[in-house]
Every structure is written in structure tokens, then in C-alpha cells.
């Protein structure tokens, strides 16, 4: 029997929290739009929003009916113009604690260069990168320089995988077919040379990634197998070199997560081919997990300058886990408080305090929203009370989590690699508008295909990852459920409570009754 030993090293990175970015407008005009992404029919606000939500975009410009969004590697010099030219460019820059640009040549803050950081993981075939950039002003133009930090370093990696705890593992594999293989010292020396760490299977996703490589499939010999040298039995810890402990009979051969630095063995008989072919095929990682993963997103709007605060608690009668956020509002601009972690299957409260409103003699006004169960939901009344003109709460799932309670895991990036998408059931399905074993048959939105109601959408679903036959199901929007989205979900949110405080009660009662306005954030238009 001949032994081929794999050396497996890895780097584990934590995905840093995304910088707080804003769009800052200047009077300017690009010197070139070559190869720049463009689209038509958008308003200026929609054009800026398109850049804001695009991971690699740093600037937006609208010329006539055409919106141009500039990726960091395509942005050339932006020539400064005057208001009379009616040409505006918006830069995406870091927001320094909510302050407005104060430099002579915006978007600078205190005459310092504007900066920004982009976390880019939109291409599932490429490991994530951080892009750090500066926007500086020189000789009548704004220019940009940037530095790219690659999560997996500058060397060619064998694979990478993201975990639910926001870490990313990059793997590097060496192998040989010498009888002796790598010694522990050689293993450590090789990993140290590249500043990597000796790796074991700490995460279930790591196991799935290694299995998805399908090394043995290429060998096409049923007598070949892979063993992972992990935590040994007590007997084999004492006598690791015995024939039993070096064979496939040792229980450590099972592919289970272990923090122990791993050695991967490929074992074959002498009659097998001397070549080992490595496949770089990824499969979808489906990880059963009982936990939920999601967040609150709160939008506020007012025609007045307000020093508002948002207090978020769990439970209602006996609040716990109290968190207070300062949310300064400027007239007629929507402010978004997002990525606030939330516990599902639990009640909770959001309390908005406007702070003083001198125009009306108000000490403060409040909005209170109680919910008796937390799941994917939208809380947005039809009407508001001044001094607020817009209010909305969205409970959303984190990336790769699905279902009403955000408790079903399906890796969206890995699904795309095999031309699939994750459904709301966290199962695999064809891309939207397609169906069939190869996802090449148009899926029509007709009553005969699947009669979805209440704006439900007909999609393809494979019940199991290895199924070759799909079925059509309805994906319901938030607020509806049932096989055809025919049932309205139970509304766990109480009616919004508005309050006003300060001044004579009669005056405020009269003002309160006359201060109703339409909620400008009841619906979001994209």
C-alpha cells in the first residue's frame, strides 16, 4: 500500500463591519465614461442609490437620462465645474460620525482627503477583498487612489468558504506521493513560510468544502479513500504507529469538524495509477442549524431638524437588552439605522424620541412600536404624526439565511456556482424565470404553472440537492403565506402609538388631532 499525504494550511479572516458610507454631491464632470456601467430611466436619487448599494462603486453621475456608476478601478479624474453647468457627481465616502463635509473642496472633511473602504464578495468564484481608497483634490480635479487587500493573500489558494460567524477560511493544499509523505516539522515549516496556519476541520463548512473537491472521484477506484488525521482514540494516542491506527479502521478517519491540525491521507493499492488528479469543483453547502440570524432596519424621516434617539429592547413589560442609538435627522432626508441584531420568536419594542421641537413648543414627541413575536416582517403605518413624516421597521434575514424566522441556512454564493439559487425554503432552485433539470426551460408566471396570488412569485425548487427533477412553488412576499400565498400572516405588531409632550394639554390635544400626515415610508420604491 502506498501513501500520498496532503498538507492542508489555511488562513481565517473575520469580515470586518462595513464602514458607514454616505453619498456626497459636488459640481463636477467625469473626464471619461469608457467601460463605465450605465443605465437609463432613473432619477438622480435612484442613480445615487444604485452606486451606494453596488459593492465596487465609488461615484455616480447623471447625464441627461443616462446614469453612470463608476467602479473604483474605472474612475478617472472628475473635473470641478460650477453650479451654472448643472453637472453633479456623487462620491461614496466614509461618514465621520454623521458630520457634513467641511473642506474647501468637498467631499473633504476639514480639508482632509475623503476616504472609503469597500468589502467586495459579489463574485462567488473569487475570495472576498477589501478596497481602501482616497479621494483627493488637485489642480481643479478630484482623483482617486486605492489599495486592494486580498482576503486570501497574494498566493494562489485552493478554495475558500464563508461561515455563519462572519469568518472566511482560505485553504491551500500541497501533496506528494512519496511513501513517507510530509512530517509534522515539514508541515509546520511549509505553512510558516507562507504565513499560514496548520488547519483542521473547525467548521462544518470546511468539511463540506473538502468533500466537494471530489479528489477520489477522479481516481475512479473504489479501493481508494481519504482519511483525516484528527483527534485519535485513547489507544491510538499511545501507539499511533501501529498497523491498526495507521489504517482506515481508526475512527479518526471520519470527516468530522476538529480543531486539531489535519493531515489528509490518500491511500491506494500498488496497482493503482501513480497520478493523483485534483478537482476544483465546489458544491452547495447546506448546513442544518437551529439558530436564527437576522436584524432590524429602521427608517425615519422628518421635515425638521431633530436630535432623535432610537431605543430598542427585547420583551415588553420587563424590557431587557436595552440599546440606545442617536439618529440625527435633517429636513426631508431619510435616515436608516440598520444591522441591529434581533432575537427571533421573542417580543420586542422600538421607541423613537424626537427630542425638542421648538417650532411647535414640543418638549419631545414619541413613536412606540410593540411586537409580540419577531419574524420577517414590515411595520409601517399608513399615517404619521408630526414632527415625523416617515417611519418604517423591517425585520430582515442576514445573508445566506432564509425562512420566516431566518433559521434556514443556504449559501447563495455557492448556489450560483452550480447555476442554482436558494429558495425561501433554503432549498436549491433554478435561477428566476427558469426551470428543468438543466435550468434551461422558461418558467412562465401563469395560473397553470402555479397560481400564486397576492404578488407571490412562481419559482423552481429541487427538494434535495441531488434531485434532477424540480417542481414549481410560490414564493410569498412578507405578510403572506400558504401554498399559493393565499393566506395573510398573523400580524404580531400592535398599532403604532404616537405621543406628544410639553405645553398646555388643550393646545397639544388640538395640535395632535390636526397633525396627521401620510407615511412617506409606507412603501419603498426601487
TrEMBL record:
Annotated keywords: Developmental protein, Disulfide bond, EGF-like domain, Membrane, Repeat, Signal, Transmembrane, Transmembrane helix
Matching SMART domains: CW (SM00605), DSL (SM00051)
A GO term from the CC aspect: plasma membrane
InterPro entries assigned: DSL (IPR001774), EGF (IPR000742), Lag2 (IPR039178), PAN-3_domain (IPR006583)
Membrane topology listed for this record: Single-pass type I membrane protein
Gene3D superfamilies: Laminin (2.10.25.10)
One Gene Ontology term from the biological process aspect of the record: Notch signaling pathway
CDD domains: EGF_CA
Disulfide-bond pairs as recorded: 397-406, 410-422, 430-439
PROSITE patterns: DSL (PS51051), EGF_1 (PS00022), EGF_2 (PS01186)
Subcellular location: Membrane
GO MF annotation: an example: Notch binding
Domain DSL: 395-439
Signal sequence interval, chain numbering: 1-19
Pfam families for this protein: DSL, PAN_3
Function: Putative Notch ligand involved in the mediation of Notch signaling.
Stated name of the protein: Delta-like protein
Species this chain originates from: Caenorhabditis nigoni
Amino acid at each position: 500500500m502506498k501513501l500520498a499525504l496532503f498538507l492542508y494550511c489555511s488562513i481565517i479572516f473575520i469580515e470586518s463591519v462595513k464602514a458607514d458610507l454616505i453619498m456626497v454631491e459636488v459640481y463636477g464632470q467625469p473626464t471619461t465614461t469608457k467601460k463605465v456601467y450605465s443605465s437609463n430611466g432613473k432619477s438622480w436619487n435612484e442613480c445615487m442609490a444604485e452606486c451606494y448599494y453596488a459593492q465596487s462603486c465609488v461615484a455616480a453621475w447623471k447625464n441627461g437620462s443616462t446614469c453612470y456608476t463608476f467602479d473604483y478601478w474605472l474612475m478617472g479624474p472628475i473635473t470641478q465645474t460650477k453650479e451654472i453647468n448643472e453637472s453633479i457627481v456623487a462620491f461614496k465616502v466614509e461618514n465621520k460620525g454623521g458630520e457634513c463635509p467641511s473642506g474647501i473642496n468637498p467631499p473633504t472633511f476639514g480639508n482632509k482627503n475623503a476616504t472609503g473602504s469597500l468589502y467586495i464578495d459579489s463574485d462567488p468564484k473569487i475570495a472576498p477583498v477589501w478596497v481602501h481608497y482616497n479621494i483627493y483634490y488637485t489642480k481643479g480635479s478630484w482623483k482617486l487612489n486605492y489599495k486592494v487587500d486580498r482576503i486570501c493573500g497574494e498566493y494562489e489558494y485552493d478554495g475558500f468558504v464563508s461561515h455563519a460567524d462572519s469568518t472566511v477560511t482560505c485553504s491551500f493544499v500541497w501533496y506528494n506521493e512519496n511513501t513517507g509523505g510530509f512530517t509534522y516539522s515539514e508541515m509546520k515549516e511549509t505553512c510558516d513560510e507562507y504565513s499560514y496556519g496548520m488547519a483542521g476541520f473547525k467548521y462544518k463548512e470546511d468539511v463540506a468544502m473538502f468533500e466537494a473537491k471530489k479528489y477520489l472521484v477522479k481516481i475512479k477506484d473504489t479501493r481508494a479513500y481519504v482519511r483525516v488525521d484528527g483527534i485519535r482514540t485513547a489507544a491510538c494516542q499511545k501507539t499511533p504507529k501501529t498497523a491498526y491506527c495507521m489504517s482506515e479502521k481508526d475512527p479518526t478517519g471520519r470527516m468530522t469538524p476538529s480543531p486539531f491540525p489535519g493531515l489528509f491521507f490518500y491511500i491506494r493499492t500498488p496497482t493503482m495509477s501513480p497520478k493523483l488528479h485534483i478537482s476544483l469543483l465546489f458544491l452547495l453547502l447546506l448546513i442544518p442549524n437551529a439558530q436564527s440570524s437576522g436584524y432590524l432596519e429602521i427608517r425615519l424621516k422628518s421635515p425638521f431638524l431633530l436630535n432623535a434617539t432610537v431605543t430598542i429592547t427585547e420583551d415588553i413589560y420587563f424590557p431587557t437588552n436595552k440599546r440606545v442609538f442617536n439618529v440625527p435627522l435633517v429636513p426631508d432626508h431619510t435616515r436608516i439605522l440598520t444591522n441591529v441584531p434581533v432575537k427571533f420568536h421573542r417580543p420586542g419594542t422600538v421607541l423613537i424620541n424626537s427630542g425638542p421641537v421648538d417650532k411647535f413648543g414640543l418638549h419631545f414627541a414619541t413613536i412606540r412600536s410593540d411586537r409580540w413575536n419577531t419574524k420577517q416582517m414590515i411595520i409601517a403605518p399608513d399615517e404619521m404624526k408630526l414632527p415625523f413624516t416617515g417611519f418604517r421597521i423591517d425585520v430582515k434575514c442576514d445573508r445566506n439565511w432564509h425562512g420566516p424566522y431566518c433559521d434556514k441556512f443556504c449559501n447563495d454564493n455557492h448556489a450560483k456556482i452550480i447555476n442554482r439559487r436558494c429558495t425561501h425554503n433554503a432549498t436549491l432552485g433554478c435561477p428566476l424565470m427558469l426551470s428543468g433539470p438543466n435550468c434551461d426551460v422558461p418558467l412562465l408566471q401563469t395560473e397553470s404553472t402555479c397560481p400564486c396570488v397576492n404578488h407571490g412569485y412562481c419559482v423552481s425548487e429541487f427538494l434535495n440537492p441531488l434531485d434532477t427533477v424540480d417542481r414549481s412553488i410560490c414564493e410569498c412576499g412578507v405578510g403572506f403565506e400558504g401554498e399559493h400565498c393565499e393566506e395573510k400572516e398573523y400580524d404580531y405588531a400592535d398599532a403604532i402609538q404616537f405621543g406628544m409632550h410639553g405645553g398646555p394639554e388643550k393646545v397639544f390635544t388640538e395640535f395632535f388631532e390636526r397633525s396627521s400626515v401620510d407615511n412617506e415610508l409606507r412603501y419603498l420604491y426601487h
